[in-house]
Design goal:
31% of the residues lie in helices and 25% in strands. With 336 residues, it is an alpha/beta fold. It contains twelve helices and 14 strands. Helix 9 runs antiparallel to helix 10. Strand 11 and strand 12 form a beta hairpin. The relative contact order is 0.12.
Length: 336
């Protein structure tokens, strides 16, 4: 059976997301699967996958999905070879007037998992990752912004999601919706592009910058926490909107962690242990490899501060046995 086309619409601003999903369905002639209908199921992704094939004669469906669901989960489900739907677009609707503040929010979204367990997802992280994985980013409420502010917002979106098409809503110019079949292997996020030395955003602004930070030595956890709390979050180096990549903490030698940061939220979940690397595999990172995105960033000062949070010559020479005794304020890792 030929898979049914599906466009997923996401966004952390509920009114703008719902309105655009409805208009998109009406404009394209596709069936509309609103969030209110999908949320009746304990698994809205599964519900959309079950309902979409019924819209085959209409050419497919537009599904409005809960903002707390990670875009990687949406892509992973619908990009399966045996899925009855074909994901041809991931549209992220953004409130342009509040994007910068949305990336700094410290509240959480809640969604129920398919197993009935309540899950929480940082709203700022949801906003950032939806932009990063989107095929199209729609900017609502852009008319209220002055031209310089709109330029900044466009550049932020383009830096985070450099491969995404950007649309203004309402649009002064009509634009044809383009199908973009999405595969499970994804390199759309800007931070991945930066780490691959392949980051070319279509729109730029003098206030918006991005850079790759690399260091061979692990971080001293206590100095890293002090840097983040006392200098990065207060804005000593400008506003760090988003950073992501790979890092190592000296107190946990041999393990690479995923650096995931938006606004005031930082998580460092473990990704891989050096001892598990096969002969034909490469390390994710020998030390630090992190992409930074921000407003009015003082890059040289931030790099110097990050370097100072890494181990000194004497500390590095002391070796892993000594490193394990250093103060470590970060949460312990739970191993499966």
């Amino acid at each position: 059976m030929t898979p049914t086309n599906l466009i997923a619409v996401v966004g952390t601003c509920a009114p703008e997301r719902a309105q655009y999903a409805g208009r998109l369905a009406a404009r394209t002639g596709l069936a509309h699967l609103p969030l209110a209908r999908l949320a009746m199921s304990p698994d809205p992704i599964d519900e959309a996958e079950a309902l979409a094939p019924w819209s085959h004669e209409q050419g497919g469906a537009v599904a409005e999905l809960p903002p707390a669901i990670a875009p990687t989960a949406i892509i992973g489900r619908y990009a399966r070879a045996d899925s009855p739907v074909r994901l041809i677009g991931l549209v992220c609707v953004v409130d342009a007037a509040h994007l910068i503040s949305d990336l700094a929010r410290d509240d959480y979204l809640t969604v129920w998992g398919s197993d009935g367990e309540r899950m929480h997802r940082a709203r700022a992280l949801a906003t950032a990752t939806q932009i990063e994985y989107a095929t199209t980013v729609v900017l609502a409420n852009w008319e209220s912004l002055a031209t310089p502010d709109l330029s900044t917002v466009l550049a932020i979106v383009s830096a985070l999601g450099p491969t995404a098409r950007i649309r203004l809503d309402p649009s002064p110019y009509p634009a044809v919706e383009l199908a973009t079949p999405i595969t499970q292997v994804q390199d759309r996020p800007g931070w991945i592009g930066l780490l691959n030395d392949d980051h070319e955003p279509h729109m730029t602004d003098r206030r918006v910058s991005a850079f790759r930070y690399e260091a061979a030595r692990p971080f001293h956890p206590a100095r890293l926490e002090a840097l983040l709390d006392d200098r990065v979050e207060p804005g000593d180096f400008g506003t760090v909107l988003r950073s992501a990549g790979f890092c190592r903490l000296a107190t946990r030698p041999g393990t690479v962690a995923h650096w995931e940061h938006v606004g005031s939220m930082l998580s460092l979940p473990p990704l891989s242990d050096d001892g598990d690397i096969g002969d034909d595999e490469e390390l994710l990172a020998a030390g630090q490899d992190i992409a930074f995105f921000g407003l009015d960033l003082d890059r040289p000062a931030l790099v110097r501060a990050l370097d100072a949070a890494c181990l000194t010559d004497a500390e590095f020479a002391a070796g892993p046995d000594a490193w394990r005794s250093y103060e470590d304020p970060f949460p312990a890792w739970e191993r499966a």
